[in-house]
Design goal:
Residues 91-303 form the SET domain. One of its GO terms (biological process) is methylation. Pfam families: Rubis-subs-bind, SET. This is SET domain-containing protein. Strand 3 and strand 4 (101-106) form a beta hairpin. Helix 12 packs antiparallel against helix 14. The model is unreliable at 1-54, 59-67 and 461-469 (pLDDT under 50). It is built from 14 helices and 15 strands. It is elongated, with a radius of gyration of 25 Å. It is α+β, with helices and mostly antiparallel strands.
């Protein structure tokens, strides 16, 4: 792997971290002002993960009903009546139980390019736009200032309240009533997380829910405006909605929808099905991207993220997620303060370090206040490397400065690993306990992923190989 850097260049390659044991001591260096550089790529490092199909169930597995029960049958029957024939007797899909809980399976061999399910936005899906039947509610609200999740939650709850309409009732009745939602973690379970960023995210989402209680509770009928009803609606849309572009007055507009049938599919990093909106048919469609055998479970992707969104929105943690990351500094000021303490670097060099980090930030179009992280695949935040390199002695070569910056990141990972209450091995042993609650089990899986990110960067096998053109 190479890193190509100079004051005049804007090109870079991956930086692998140096080999070290978890208890290794990284030599301190006296820091002075050094160079400025741009490193393309928010993260730089040496990817080493194997390409595997990472699969997990979504919030469907939290449903109180049995798999393939009467609610599923009613939903499939309704979809067939709406000309969404994917789940009909002659269709290509069926709902069943697999290794990952409730899921969707191929009824027959499906060829690449075949459309297996087509959902009408007008007659089947629920969109974050108020329907004609909601005119009275919409006119009483300032919905123009509402975010998508408030609009879609309101539309879903109004559908529940409309007892006179059988439209979409089968879908609403099929939705789970209980979710593995971190917002409902107990205080004792919150302490098991061990990583501050997730706790902060949970607290922020709790505030979002509380604000929604006030807005939706005041706007909706009393029968569906309670905090419990609002919680259910928000849990549903955050775990099951899709973002698509739908024409609105001619221009494509980002729109969130609930897509009955599509949301029964579980998640994989390597799905066999693609989904998109087809403007010529007005439908949200599922299309095969590869050959699928009969009775094979079919998957979609919920997106490519680190583990935080999966846990926060869907209540699960993908196994061995190669895209997971772990925050090692909340912001640049914390990183610079740590470097000054650990390496006795001069605070007089901080303005130059900030300049280098901000240059990389602008190159990557990211926010200045975004956390600084390391990745599961051995990657390191380029802004952090640029800032730390700027604190190294000016007389050192560019290679030496970047090497010391990467070593500092490595030591930070070692430090964080040693500060945690449990080790990876201890977490693995805890997972073998049959007495764990579902919440604690998923929390342990989550924190193990973060520790793997730290360990990957702390014990990377490669030595630095930097070439300056």
């Amino acid at each position: 792997m190479q890193l190509i850097l100079s004051r005049d260049t804007h090109r870079a390659h991956d930086i692998p971290l140096e080999s070290a044991s978890l208890r290794a001591s990284v030599p301190k260096v006296k820091a002075q002002r050094t160079f400025q550089t741009n490193i393309p790529g928010h993260f730089v490092g040496l990817p080493r993960h194997r390409k595997t199909r990472v699969i997990a169930s979504n919030a469907n597995q939290n449903s109180q009903g049995s798999l393939g029960d009467d609610k599923d049958k009613a939903l499939c029957s309704w979809l067939s009546q709406c000309d969404a024939h994917g789940f009909s007797k002659g269709g290509k899909l069926y709902v069943g139980e697999g290794k990952h809980g409730r899921g969707v399976f191929a009824r027959q061999t499906i060829r690449p390019g075949e459309t297996v399910l087509s959902i009408s936005l007008e007659n089947v899906a629920l969109m974050d736009r108020f329907q004609s039947s909601h005119t009275a509610v919409e006119s009483a609200l300032d919905v123009s200032s509402w975010t998508w999740y408030l609009r879609l939650a309101a539309v879903l709850l109004l559908q529940v309240a409309d007892e006179s309409s059988a439209s979409r009732a089968a879908y609403v009745n099929s939705l789970p009533n209980d979710f593995c939602n971190p917002l409902r973690f107990k205080a004792s379970e919150m302490r098991e997380i061990q990583f501050k960023p997730l706790r902060k995210e949970i607290e922020g989402i709790r505030e979002l829910y509380e604000d929604a209680h006030v807005l939706l509770g005041a706007a909706l009928p009393e029968s569906v405006g309670s905090p419990a009803s609002v919680n259910w609606a928000l849990d549903t849309i955050f775990s099951r909605s899709f973002k698509i572009q739908v024409p609105d007055g001619g221009a494509p507009t980002d729109t969130r929808i609930l897509a009955p049938g599509v949301d029964l599919c579980n998640h994989s990093m390597e799905p066999q099905l693609d989904y998109n909106y087809n403007p010529s048919t007005g439908c949200f469609e599922l299309t095969a991207s590869e050959l699928i055998e009969a009775d094979e479970e079919v998957y979609i992707t919920y997106g490519v993220y680190n583990n935080d969104p999966y846990l926060l929105s869907y209540g699960f943690v993908p196994e061995d997620n190669p895209h997971d990351t772990c925050v090692i500094f909340d912001d640049l000021e914390e990183a610079l303060d740590w470097h000054s303490w650990r390496y006795d670097s001069s605070e007089g060099d901080w303005p130059f370090a900030r300049e280098c980090a901000q240059t990389n930030m602008k190159e990557q179009s990211i926010h200045a206040d975004r956390e600084y992280s390391v990745g599961r695949d051995g990657t390191v935040d380029s802004r952090l490397l640029a800032a730390f390199a700027a604190l190294e002695p000016a007389e050192d070569s560019e290679d030496e400065r970047m090497e010391q910056a990467a070593l500092a990141c490595m030591e930070r990972c070692v430090e964080l690993l040693e500060s945690l209450p449990t080790t990876l091995q201890e977490d693995l042993e805890l997972l073998g306990s049959a007495s764990l609650s579902k919440a604690v089990r998923v929390i342990i899986q989550f924190r193990m992923g973060k520790k793997l990110c730290l360990k990957e960067c702390a014990v990377a096998e490669e030595i630095f190989e930097m070439i300056v053109e």
